[in-house]
Amino acid sequence: MSARPIRVLVAKPGLDGHDRGAKVIAQALRDAGMEVIYTGLRQTPEQIVEAALQEDVQVVALSSLSGAHLHLFPLVVEGLRRQNAADVLVLGGGVIPDEDIPVLREAGVVEIFGPGTLTKDVISFIRERVPA
């Protein structure tokens, strides 16, 4: 009997219309054997939480290039908590200033991956933190 693959929801919250990085991450996670659901562009935090619950994911990977990460990422974390899904690992990525990272971590975003992060580092991070 094989272990269930790690399930990851890759999401683009807000009005950000740039999804190349999200698609690269989604493909790398798939290539690493994870099941990946990509929400597409311009999702609300509520839509992301609902998709995470419906898809029974262990990880939500948020991508933002719009500058709205301080508002949107915490809303996803809080929405998951309200739905008794605080065990879902929330990660962030995109163009996020260094000074915003502690604020996001305080809000419950476990890690932030910026431009230039190697996909193998994201894969390793998830595998180390999600039980098999």
Automatic annotation (TrEMBL):
Q: Give cofactor(s), names only.
A: adenosylcob(III)alamin
User: Residue limits of the B12-binding domain?
Assistant: 5-132
Which superkingdom?
Bacteria
GO molecular function per UniProt: cobalamin binding; isomerase activity; metal ion binding
**Which keywords fit this entry according to its UniProt record?**
Cobalamin, Cobalt, Isomerase, Metal-binding
Has UniProt tagged this entry with the keyword Ribosomal protein?
Answer: no
Name used for this protein in its record:
Methylmalonyl-CoA mutase
Origin organism of this chain?
Desulfotomaculum copahuensis
